[in-house]
Amino acid sequence: MISGKSVLGLIPCRLGSKRVPIKNIRDFRGKSLLSWAVDEARKSKYLDRIIIASDHINLAHRPGCTALYLPATIANSTSSNCAKYALRFYPHDLICLLQPTSPLRTAADIDACIELAPAFST
Q1: Average model confidence (pLDDT) for the chain?
Q2: Would you state the pLDDT for residue 62?
Q3: CA atoms of 54 and 68, how far apart (whole Å)
Q4: N or C: which end of the chain has fewer CB within 10 A?
Q5: Are 11 and 102 in contact (CB under 8 A)?
Q6: What is the spatial distance between Cα 28 and Cα 39, in angstroms, rounded to a whole number?
Q7: What span, in angstroms and rounded, lies between the C-alpha atoms of 93 and 23?
Q8: Do 34 and 40 contact (CB within 8 A), yes or no?
Q9: In whole angstroms, how large is the CA radius of gyration of the chain?
Q10: Whole-Å CA distances, 62 to 19, 34, 53, 57
Q11: What pTM was computed for the model?
Q12: DSSP assignment of the chain, as one string?
């Protein structure tokens, strides 16, 4: 939460990929891409809830996270459609999209971006 506003961390993580099969669970420096996203999201001081949205429900079960099953039409769509879908079930004031394919992003990066959001600027 920041300035009295709730913040949702959304990690879209479909199992399939058109170019790189199972990329979100592939190893990168000792952990899967999904694990990097989850670990840094958990360290954020502003994220009120972390959701892993996936078309493969077993992939989305991680401690400290809420699993959201995505129907194929949403999973094979855009990240913005995934975000709209997630907000129907978990309404928040702000959503922070955390793509697993950005494993170098840190909790400090997440928090700095949230602080820069126009809704919280002074």
Answers
A1: 84
A2: 72
A3: 6
A4: C
A5: no
A6: 14
A7: 30
A8: no
A9: 14
A10: 25, 10, 11, 11
A11: 0.84
A12: -BTTB-EEEEEE--S--SSSTTGGGSEETTEEHHHHHHHHHHH-SS-SEEEEEESSHHHH--TT-EEEEPPHHHHTS-HHHHHHHHHHHS--SEEEE--TT-TT--HHHHHHHHHHSGGG--
Q: Are strands 31-32 and 27-28 parallel, antiparallel or unpaired?
A: antiparallel
Residue type, 75: A
What pLDDT is recorded for position 34? 87
Tens-place pLDDT, residues 85-121: 999 999 898 899 999 888 889 999 999 999 988 765 5
Q: Which amino acid is at 109?
A: D
Task: Dump pLDDT digits (tens) for 25-63.
Answer: 777 788 888 888 999 999 999 999 999 888 877 666 676
